[in-house]
Amino acid sequence: MLDFSQAPFLVIWETTQACDLACRHCRASAVPDRHSGELSTAEARRMLDQVKAFGDPLLVFTGGDPLKRADLFDLLSYSVSIGLRTTVTPSATPLLTPVAVERFRDCGVSRMAVSLDGPDAQSHDGFRGVAGSFDCTIEALRAARRVGLETQINTTVSRFSMDKLARIAQVAGDEGATLWSVFFLVVTGRAQLDDDLTAEEYEQVFEFLYETSLRAPFQIKTTEAQHYRRYVAQRRKSARGLLPINDGKGFMFVSHTGEIFPSGFLEVSAGNVRRNTLQEAYRGSALFQVLRDPDSFAGKCGGCEYRNLCGGSRSRAYALTGDYAGSDPRCVYEPPSLAKSPQAPAA
Q: Structural domain boundaries of the chain?
């Protein structure tokens, strides 16, 4: 078992918050122009060296839109050159040309991820806020296939997309995606509470994802749905093969200005790469240590027998309750250990 007390499995770097889309759920509330306080090329290289010092984590270049940075390809090449497994998540805009896709491949990027939140132009472009985004997404997937670059499709589960998931999965299969990464909404950035599903609807989506995983030509992973692991373990009668990753536990996020967060959806800082090393923040900060200790969680998450496997979304707990150690409000599961004992009959 990986020791998540010492190193993350996954590190996300928000290269910039600049993006030319206007997505209705955007965690970063992205804007068209780059921020003057973004990490410089030299600072980014030093940060990448620190990621590598953890050992062999997976590194994701995300945004905003990474293609808004002029030094993106240089930094991708540097990341690969120091031995990091490197992926990139560009936005589907005119910057994402077939030439850009080929350059990703040439840099040694192991996978390109693009977002797909509707199975057709009308639904996807309506969600992303810019006409032509769907066509750009499909062309990027096909360009990647032509040059032999592995692809991933990211989809946000919300009130908008819930009834379209089966058709989105069909597109993912048709376009040759290796992985379908399904993000469950956290009410941050532009996301609104009314966009989220109920806890019962989460279970319905879990059932769909599990059944789809049994026959799909791609793998399925979830983000901010830690309780999907509980669902899978219940269905399989085994937790074998399920990594107990959570915000701050096997996972860390570096913002465009260098802030070190447990997750992009949990913007509570444990330091800044301009003052602290990633190792100091991940291993030594009180924030990350609490997040790695499910016995410290409140409510049913703290008393649940799946707390080490699942632990609930710390980001969602914080977004909806203000307490990152609280219970995940979008979980229906009631731990037997916390079930109320029946009242004794009156004498």
A: 10-294
